[in-house]
């Protein structure tokens, strides 16, 4: 027992001579130990201390620990014993997940039993465990750990498990204060782990010490006005998708790039044509054209009149006029919303009744030819005007020829 104490004291003194301020920490621990059944020992309370040295090796930090279970009861006996465990471990701490520091440990030690029973002996032992520290300040942390201990007892190996909770104090003194890890830009990440030194004051940083760019578009979050840009897209200095023609639709979705300034566009970035007449709103002088009307270049309905002339007393369409009627029929096909009224006229020669009948016959012959050219007869009506609407004087042959005519007018 004295030899073990001397060895631990010497090791502690050697490590302390090389330790800088706050380069070592001491933990006061307490908890429970659950022994293997064949030891004949009840579950034990335990308390003790752990001294860890942080400047000896970056990967493995030495730790000296003492764990005492006083007045532990033997099962099936009135005897009590005190069990003392002296451990020398190596501790590996993982990268800080602020404010949590995970760690694992393993090492060798010695167990002393004051009152021996059921083949429990003083013996060497091995241990391994894991846990974490929760930093409250740079000098104080809460520590929790689980420990597995394997001991050689009278030709057999016995197992113990321990669960410990403690309070860790980091301390030192004198000039060693300079060894405290630096955080030059005060961003919460030590310089040794800071991938982005010189962060502006007050900036929120990630675990690497860098201002984050959540959507990965190259514009840091504090300056990113469009923080959810799809991956791989090119953005402007504001972090927003580029809209070259400034129509409100980003280039990546714009099916009509180069939209003119002031134009109203749809979701694809193309100019709107609300009345669907083929002329976009910006150029449409007649924005409410009924659907199906043929329009001109400024979006207004085209009005087209058919005028034919007849020989005296005849309702027959001359062969040279048939192409004119066919052309008019094609216009009506291209403007399916139009209807038309075919009006026949005569000169003043003859009785009013005869002229009225002749004018109706002329109107019917033109309607029949339009139907032959594919126009629905329901779109056409006829009217005989007789001699009532002359366009020239009936006193001359030339004037009477002008009055013997057909006029077709469009109806909306």
Radius of gyration: 52 Å
Number of domains: 3
* Name of the CATH class of the largest domain: Mainly Beta
- What percent of residues are in strands? 25-35%
Total number of beta strands: 12
The termini sit apart by: 116 Å
Roughly how much helix do the residues carry, as a percent range? 10-25%
Average pLDDT, all residues: 78
Low-confidence stretches: 1-21, 173-178
Strand order of the largest sheet: 1-2-3-4-5-6-7-8
What kind of sheet is the major sheet?
8 strands, antiparallel, barrel
CATH architecture grouping of the largest domain: Beta Barrel
Q: Indicate the structural class.
A: alpha+beta
Return the CATH topology of the largest domain.
Porin
Number of helices: 4
Following the backbone from N to C, one meets helices and strands in this order, namely: HEEEEEEEEEHEHEHE
The geometry reads as rod-shaped
């Amino acid at each position: 027992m004295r030899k073990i104490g001397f060895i631990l004291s010497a090791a502690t003194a050697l490590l302390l001579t090389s330790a800088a301020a706050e380069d070592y920490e001491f933990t006061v621990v307490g908890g429970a130990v659950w022994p293997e059944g064949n030891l004949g020992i009840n579950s034990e309370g335990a308390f003790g201390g752990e001294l860890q040295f942080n400047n000896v090796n970056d990967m493995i930090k030495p730790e000296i620990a003492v764990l005492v279970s006083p007045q532990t009861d033997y099962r099936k006996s009135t005897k009590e014993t005190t069990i003392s465990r002296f451990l020398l471990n190596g501790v590996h701490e993982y990268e800080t997940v602020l404010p949590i520091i995970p760690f694992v440990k393993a090492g060798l030690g010695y167990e002393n039993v004051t009152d021996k029973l059921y083949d429990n002996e003083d013996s060497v032992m091995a241990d391994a465990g894991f846990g974490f520290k929760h930093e409250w300040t740079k000098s104080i942390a809460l520590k929790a750990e689980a420990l597995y201990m394997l001991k050689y007892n009278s030709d057999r190996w016995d197992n113990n498990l321990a669960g410990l909770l403690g309070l860790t104090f980091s301390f030192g003194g004198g000039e060693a204060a300079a060894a405290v890890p630096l955080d030059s830009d005060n961003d919460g990440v030590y310089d040794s782990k800071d991938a982005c030194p010189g962060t502006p004051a007050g900036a929120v940083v990630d675990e690497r010490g860098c201002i984050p760019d959540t959507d990965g578009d190259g514009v840091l979050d504090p300056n990113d006005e469009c923080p959810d840009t799809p991956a791989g897209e090119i953005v402007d200095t504001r972090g927003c998708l580029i809209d070259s023609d400034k129509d409100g639709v980003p280039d990546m979705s714009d099916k009509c790039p180069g939209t003119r300034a002031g134009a109203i566009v749809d979701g694809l970035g193309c100019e709107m044509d609300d009345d669907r007449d083929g002329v976009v709103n910006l150029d449409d002088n007649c924005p409410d054209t009924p659907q199906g009307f043929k329009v001109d270049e400024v979006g207004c309905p085209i009005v087209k009149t058919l005028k034919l002339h007849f020989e005296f007393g005849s309702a027959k369409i001359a062969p040279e006029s048939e192409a004119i009627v066919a052309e008019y029929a094609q216009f009506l096909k291209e403007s399916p919303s139009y209807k038309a009224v075919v009006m026949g006229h005569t000169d003043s020669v003859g009785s009013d009744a005869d002229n009225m009948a002749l004018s109706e016959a002329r109107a019917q012959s033109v309607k029949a030819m339009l139907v032959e050219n594919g126009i629905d007869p329901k779109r056409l009506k006829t009217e005989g005007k007789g001699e009532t609407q002359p366009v020239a004087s009936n006193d001359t042959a030339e004037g009477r020829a002008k009055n013997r005519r057909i006029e077709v007018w469009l109806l909306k």
